[in-house]
Amino acid sequence: MSDATPDTDSTASRSQAAPITDACDVVLILSNAPDLMLAKRIAHILVEEHYAACVNLGPAGLSMYMWQGSLEGADEIPITIKTTAARAPAVMEKLAQLHPYEVPEMLVLPAVGGSASYIEWVRMQVTPGEA
């Protein structure tokens, strides 16, 4: 077998879809930050301290919302946090400590499926002592 030939066992493992029931313990937490510096700090802490397997920061975008009876608009950095349902409460507690907003956005969404290897990697990353 040449070096250029793909390893079909490895490729199959990476593309294997996790059954929906197996993926349900993986969640995405959506949030935002008022600036990139704080978003990076939040991401760094959540990953380094094993609250999250991965944190994605998006480009700044305009958020429009009502706050204390007035229409507000602010540029914010979107944050997507990948973790498990078991770790979600601790993630939200840590996020609230790090966040300057009185009411920071924290929405927990279930992952209804995904690649089996990625789902397992997320689980391992947020299990203290296992990553």
Automatic annotation (TrEMBL):
GO terms for biological process: response to metal ion. SUPFAM superfamilies: GlnB-like (SSF54913). InterPro entries: Ion_tolerance_CutA (IPR004323), N-reg_PII-like_a/b (IPR011322), N-reg_PII/ATP_PRibTrfase_C (IPR015867). Pfam families: CutA1 (PF03091). GO terms for molecular function: copper ion binding. Belongs to the CutA family. This is Divalent-cation tolerance protein CutA. It comes from Pollutimonas thiosulfatoxidans. The lineage of its organism: Bacteria, Pseudomonadati, Pseudomonadota, Betaproteobacteria, Burkholderiales.
